[in-house]
Amino acid sequence: MKLSHLIVVLSLTVFTSACSNWIYRIDIPQGNFLDDKDVKKLRVGMTKEQVEFVLGRPILKDAFDQDTWYYYYEMKRGMEKRGEDFEKNMVITFVDGKVSTVTGDFELSEDFNTPLDQE
């Protein structure tokens, strides 16, 4: 009798684990999604208002350093067939209220070092 119960339990375990890919799991995006074409609009010398207009509000403004903004985006995939999990970040540093440096996982445009007023 115990052997038959064990066989039933094992077969149910195998059956349910085989069906785990049938369950729909949603993707979970968190943070600021930044499009590459928007990031390429950044230029040295842009004001904070201009950056916020182009990229949106940062996910974090440092409380102790108002001249550093953090943009962060993370995507956790619900199912493997839709791709792998990834994350991207960008840190913008301002000097005197204008963009000084941009670091992170995004490529900047070739014109980044050319201020807007010199075009």
UniProtKB/TrEMBL annotation:
Entry keywords, A to Z: Cell outer membrane, Lipoprotein, Membrane, Palmitate, Signal
Entry's Gene Ontology cellular component terms: Bam protein complex
Subcellular location: Cell outer membrane
InterPro entries: BamE (IPR026592), BamE-like (IPR037873), BamE_dom (IPR007450)
Topology term for the membrane: Lipid-anchor
Record Pfam families: BamE (PF04355)
Top-level taxon in the UniProt lineage: Bacteria
Quaternary structure, from the entry: Part of the Bam complex.
Function description: Part of the outer membrane protein assembly complex, which is involved in assembly and insertion of beta-barrel proteins into the outer membrane.
Family according to the record: Belongs to the BamE family.
Cross-referenced Gene3D superfamilies: 3.30.1450.10
Outer membrane protein assembly factor BamE domain residues: 31-102
Presence of the UniProt keyword Lipoprotein in the record: yes
GO molecular function ontology, one term from the record: protein-macromolecule adaptor activity
Protein name (database record): Outer membrane protein assembly factor BamE
Any one GO biological process: protein insertion into membrane
Chief place where the protein resides: membrane
Keyword Lipid biosynthesis: no
